[in-house]
Amino acid sequence: MKKYTVFIVLFFTLTLAPRVMAAVTTTPTPSKSIEASASGEKTKKLEELKDRLATKVAELRQTQRKALYGTVSEVSLVSLSVETANKNVKLDLSDNLKIVQLIKDKRTVLSISDLAKGDIITAFGQFDSTIDLLTPKIIVIQKKPSKHIQGKIKEVNKTDFSISVETNDTQVYVVDIESTTKTLSWTTAGGIVKSGFSKLTVGDTVLVTGQSVPKKDLRLSADRVVNIGSLSPTPAQTTEAPSPTSTPSATPVKK
Fold this sequence. Notes:
The protein has helices at 2-24, 30-62, and strands spanning 63-75, 79-83, 88-92, 98-103, 106-110, 120-128, 133-141, 147-157, 162-167, 172-176, 182-187, 191-194, 205-212, 219-227. 13% of the residues are buried. The protein is built from two helices and 14 strands, in the order ααββββββββββββββ.
């Protein structure tokens, strides 16, 4: 009887145990799969962020804040070429660029269309040394070297405080007399003395030092005007001595 009982126990152990173990084996739940997927997505985003940061660091190493001074050699709607003391540098003109110039002692905001070949500028912005490209935030058009002319006053305009001066090569300049213009006169007695606009008259010879007015040919904004008066020689006045007249003789003429 005992043997028979042991046999039954062994039979059930061998046949039912695998089934019970199979039933006990757990399968991954959906929640664990979602967690694994989310973890992988976070890792991917972290790697992308690292790549972007590395790219930005590389860009910052290539660019630096810089000021540039030179003469404009070429102009387009989107770029400038500027000749510096060492080389030509290209400027990329963005929409938020600010352009200013000191005109008649006032800071004036201009546009890209006001830039011209030959302008002397100072530009401030980010410079990429790998391609010699400056992206400026602000451009200041500098005061050009003074221009000097000499000639005779052809017209005095008392309405807009200007004079027309004809030079020796027959070019006629319009000269604006500003509130800051120094007007002087030369006299034989006192040399150069302080003068004013009201003393300038047609026919006087003047020496003018000033700045070219942007986008206006043959027009100057005067820094200084020296009036040296009329250089036309005054005709010498000559007096003729009266010719001797014959006086009648008291002695009768013999026939």
